[in-house]
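hey all, quick one before standup. I had two proteins in the batch that finished overnight and I want to keep them in one place so we stop losing track of which output belongs to which input. First protein below, input sequence then structure tokens straight from the run.
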Amino acid sequence: MLVNVPKLVSAYYTEKPDPSVPTQRVAFGTSGHRGSAFEKAFNEWHILAISQAICLYRKQKKIDGPLFLGIDTHALSVPAFASALEVLAANGVETMISQEDEYTPTPAVSHAILTYNRGRKSGLADGIVITPSHNPPHDGGFKYNPPNGGPAESAVTAWIEAKANEFLENGIWGVKRISYEKALRASTTHRHDYLAAYISDLGSVIDMDVIRDAKINMGVDPLGGAGVRYWGPIAERYGLNLTVVSETVDPTFRFMTVDWDGQIRMDPSSTYAMQRLIGMKDRFDL
């Protein structure tokens, strides 16, 4: 049942979607497009088309500040990141990518957008989060966050979706793109320390002293997700009695117990998917 990661990444680059087939078109759900490269629902053309559509949307709305770009640990996130950066750099978008290519949880991208935009009326920032959330390992996801930092509303996603599908229908003619190597070296591509910025600001919204002084014994399972490297530094900075029970990152997510339908799915609301952590509940207060 484990996803064949080399085959999946190969399908991302080699399979071309047919826009006349509804399931192969760009389709935004909650702020983003999700799908599997095996089903021609999340392939290179999708990401090139959506990225170019976002560039046009930014231009139309005069959003000309930096774009904060983050990824999660799904196998298709790294290829999608490369495709997106090629388009963003070719369009001259100031793009903020993570320090040392670290994974970036969605709240850290939202925090970066809001922090940058605080007190500004123009030159606003927005963001892209490359994640299908807790979808199965063979899925990829690509979400747009406007300057309010949250998920894009339906009017925004409908515009981006329609424009992206136009690009697909035209064989991605009109998509600007440079090589990944050039995109990484572009003067518009910058490194941003999402982890340090997010963790240092947590104390301004959460009373960490109360949690620390209570000495409550906490256990955290990041489920192999984008927050995997955040919990340790949070505990260290604020002196919390917190144990990260697993720091494993594996794009097959083979360490998960299967969900109710036999799928591997990293859903923290599912008692099936959370069996491993539930089995440790007596070791911790929380």
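OK second protein, same deal, sequence then tokens:
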Amino acid sequence: MEDILLKEKIDGLPESLKEQVSDYVDFLLYRYSDSQPVLTTEEKTELDDRWDAYQQGSSPTSSIEDVKERLEKKHGVSN
């Protein structure tokens, strides 16, 4: 597919769908790349902070059922 045609199709989408397209492109790039993405220092720090908060019990958590329900409502997909 030509880049220009693809860009025109994406430009014609509502803003809410453009974000989903971007997320899907990121997924495809990750899925079919030979290397794993490298985290930035800021990303590593954020993950470390979240892990520490989780271990200390000061991080809010959700059950898998709640997560599934939120995703089903947001994306209209169910098992």
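Flagging for whoever picks this up: Residues 25 and 46 are 24 Å apart (CA to CA). The helical segments are 3-11, 15-31, 41-55, 64-75.
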